[in-house]
Design a protein that fits this description.
seven-stranded mixed beta sheet
Length: 821
Amino acid sequence: MLQKVLKFGGSSVASAERILHVAQIIQSYIARGEKFAVVVSAMGGSTDRLIHMSQVAASGSMAYEDDLHAFAGRHRVVVDELIGSTIHDRCLEEIISGQEELGNLLKGLYLTRDLTTRTLDYIQSFGERNLAFILNHVLKSMGTEAVFVDARKLIKTNDNYGSAKVFMEETKENLSRHFAETEGQVSIFTGFIASTRSGITTTLGRGGSDYTASIIGAAMDVQEIEIWTDVDGVMTADPRIVKQAFPIPAMTYEEALEMSHFGARVIYPPTIIPALEKKIPIRIKNTFRPEAPGTLISQQAPDHMYAVTGVSSINNVALLSLEGSGLFGASTIAARLFQTLAQASINAILITQGSSEHSICFSVAPNVAEKARELINEEFELEIKAKYVHPVRVEFDLSVIAIIGENMKSRPGISGRFFEALGKNGINVIVTAQGSSERNISVIIHREDEAKALAAVHNIFFLSDYYTLNLFVVGVGLIGGTLLQQIRNQENWLRQTQYVKFNVVGLGNSKKMLFDPAGIDLDSWKETLTTSDLPMDMGQFVAKMKSLNLPNAVFIDNTADTELVKFYPEILNSSISISTPNKSASSGRYQDYQQLRAVANKRGVKYMYETNVGAGLPVLTTLNDLINSGDRIQKIEGVLSGSLSFIFNTFGPGLPFSEVVEEAGRKGFTEPDPRVDLSGKDVARKILILAREAGYPMEFEEVEIENILPQECIDAETVPDFKAALARGNDLFEARQNDAAKKGKRLRFVASLEDGKARVSLQAVDVEHPFYHLSGSDNMIVFTTDRYHERPLVIKGPGAGAEVTAAGVFAEILRIGYYLS
């Protein structure tokens, strides 16, 4: 009695080497004493080639001969390589005879210019016939008792060429008789093809070899049907798009039907029906990894940890919408609409209707969309003329995304997580539909967002062990390089405790840029970036970042480049979050600052710049928490420059001011030209950002800045000239310091915001003031609020340095990740 049916797909038999591997798998089953039949597809790509050469011939071009010669040559190579000398010539004669028949058919098409579906079915049959015949002889040459079976003799159908309907009872009788007559032999069946009762060749639809296996299995009541392909089973998503996809160990027939309908290419949908009726399990196996368990499809609902079984998609659909006031309460509209489609054999992939009854939307294959529009407009011609109904609207370049699973039933929160994953990645949902079975939620989105949507949704439902953020980093000098090292050092900790993975996809410095969607190796990023053949171009960097269209993307700007921030609106509009220590954007024009916040809010992404003020200190976070919790800011004071903090904390009796500035430079606290720090402009930008965060629509020009440098220092042409002039002005600073000391005070360079006015100045503070006790390069920010009035809220810590600034960016990326997840 037959126990199994094994079907091998086109990729499994695409070459002589692979055919030999299939033969070895078959022999291993024989060695285990199993009783089985084999169904094979045509060699990978052969059916497409047969269709193409038919179309070329029917167009009146002799170019079909090139395809014909390639098709014939491919099969002859397999015969020459795999079949022993005793039966080689006889096998090759059959193959050559078949090629001559095929050539004559194509010549006829060339002459008549008439390609019918009936003729095309016959031409396509040569792929399966050749391969099954060859595999049969390969097995015979290896000593296996095998028999070639042309399925056209046994599987009978109607004459719906291209997708024929099987007469199951008649087919069952034929198969039962065949297996009774071939007891002890391994039957090698042609997949995909069948015939009418009068013997005319038909096909069972693309992917029909799976269906052939299921028909045989159901007819013979086998224990299991095995579909051998090139992946380890039905995957949680298309592995060509979602690299993290993995095999589903088990699923129900209904889940498999849903997955296959929505684009899963592992199994042909009609395959499931005969098996389901007989409750025969179907197992999906990998020809190239026979040891892998594969996916078992059966009646039993699997017990697994995931709420969703799989995420699938249909890559290209068109959406048709019938709208108008005439639809409201008109019970015959839907019937007329779908009857019109049915009469033209147009299949609606997804259907939805608003509860207002004002519109009906449905999706179809793009190649029939215009035909569907014409037919529906004809059907509703009177209603359209009366303006009860609008002409059908068609949208192209769309995709369907679906989440599928038995465990979705009556489980709250699934749809929320689904739509949240799409929304937070800027993916607009055009249409949504959910069946009453609760095992499927489908949406239609723009086709360009398909890969991004699949990855984002798969991330949410299947990668619960960790959440992936895709990072694009520009500026890999001191801060950026330190950030990459911190990410590298914390990689395991991030996964194990924060359940997040930072995937660095893009890098750029002033000379080169580098991209790798799979992730750049952080152990060798410097060498890889240096040897990249892509010159740095910020416009091209942004374009590439957008074209990759990755989910959960974050752009990190570690530069001080004022030109780079011009790309921020475009980046945010592309649903990519931003984290940056670059103050240029947030301290530029107030209008631009507001626009960035508005765009981020509109797109549901984050624009974060905590490190603009106080490096790694939680200054902006604290300020926003105070305001959001209802507190009112009375005053903000801050020592906001690590370099100026060090200079004035160090400056004292017996230490010339110029020498202190020189020491700050040697320690790396100041810019190469210390005037950049001593001008107070950097501090002014920071207090400006604080003012804006506190709600004041302030421009940079409104910040009052005290100039502490003598005019001679400002006018110096070179840095050495400046340092010489500063030394000549030591007496000025010494006098100011002595005056403060006499009053028991110390000099501090302070930024303040009070009553809507911002000021930056050198102030003398007494022992009661928090700034009095500052040391080193620490920053300090003091918030005086309605709640923190008697004892102001103080934030203190290092306000400069690559380590703390990079750590601040690191923390900000994590917060973006928490938001997106």
